[in-house]
Amino acid sequence: MSANVRPAPMPPRRKVWVLPRPILSERFMLPEEIADARSKRYNGTVAHIRKAHADLMVLRIKPDFPRPAHRAGQYCTLGLGNWEPRVPGTQAENLKPGDEAKVVRRAYSISCTIIDDADAVVDVAATDFIEFYITLVREGSDPAKPPALTPRLFMLREGDRVSVGEKITGHYNLEHVKPKDTVIFLGTGTGEAPHNYMTWELLKNGHQGKILQANCVRLKNDLAYLDTHRRIMAKYPNYHYLALTTREADTLTHKVYIQDLITGGQLESTLGQKLDPAGTHVFLCGNPKMIGVPEKNKETGERFYPKPLGVIEILEGRGFVVDNNAAKIKGNIHFEEYW
User: In this structure, are strands 280-286 and 295-296 parallel, antiparallel, or unpaired?
Assistant: First the structure.
């Protein structure tokens, strides 16, 4: 090549933009991928939804399989895929790569409407659904762990599909209750769910002893079964229901919590009798602070109660004995912690 001949100029380089692969989430999964995931992972249909308000609902799920045999008070799981939409305004979540195709599951105690429109005890055997009582968790207690399931459950509509556990289990039931025993259910919020189901079982079996159920919530509209309990009281003289609210205008200055019912004497006054461990079973479900499960020092074996004062400490001071499932000891205080 002659030194005087210039080489032909190179064509300008075209910029090639390499886009990073998106992290799949509910925004990026294709409709056909979502439809396939639902078909493979879901085994139940939403049969009915009744919302007491935007953050509280009674949900009935019809499983694709025969409803498992179980006892009132037990629980099973509900689940939805991470690809499902979440309630706007709830705590944001950041899914890790690969999490978008997972199903998140939580255990929920089974609830029951107890009586029908004619005020007769519901024939549960004639139904084909499982009933749940669920509150929307908008923010998790741990900033790093936003609520995964309830923001999705509250986007459901009747006819939608979900995952439901094929096993119903749990130690929380009426196994040791005798026909003439006094039965007391003390709960907070949706911790009322298993108590409703157990109340149904007692009424169905013609329980002869007194039944008292108390539930503590913030506002009256947080009591989705309140009308049901009022109707039961009108029909069954041995049934009492106490609704405790802590944020209504008329209760702000004199809040009554579950613990106060016992220490203040209102529970015994409503029952019309003293709390007698010999013939009384107490069921506790809901806020662990209300329940107050004692812990054991691993070195000394000494039991100690958590603070603030819980119901177990109050009742054990009156001669009651709490269940110890690990030691296979059944007492007359039974509990189910909800969170």
Answer: unpaired
Q: How confident is the model at residue 338 (pLDDT cuts 50, 70, 90)?
A: low
Which one-letter DSSP state was computed for residue 259?
A: H
* Six token digits for residue 10: 């190179």
Q: Boundaries of CATH 3.40.50.80 in the chain?
A: 182-337
Q: Which helix (H) or strand (E) holds 194?
A: helix 193-204
Q: Which of 134, 156, 177 is nearest to 48 (CA)?
A: 156
Contact 43, 64 (CB under 8 A): yes
State the CATH class of domain 31-164.
Answer: mainly beta
pLDDT digits (tens, 9 = 90+) for 9-64: 555 554 444 434 333 334 478 999 999 999 999 999 999 999 999 999 999 999 99
Its pTM stands at 0.90
Nearest of 268, 208, 203 to residue 229 by alpha carbon: 203
Distance, CA of 58 to CA of 130 (rounded, Å): 10
What distances in angstroms separate CA 334 from CA 121, 214, 238, 280, 327, one per listed residue?
25, 15, 21, 11, 14
Task: Identify the band that residue 296 occupies on the pLDDT scale cut at 50, 70 and 90.
Answer: confident
CA distances from 293 to 283, 289, 290, 299, 322 (A): 13, 8, 9, 19, 9
Cβ atoms 333, 316 nearer than 8 A: yes
75 within 8 A of 85, measured Cβ to Cβ: no
Which CATH architecture describes the domain 182-337? 3-Layer(aba) Sandwich (3.40)
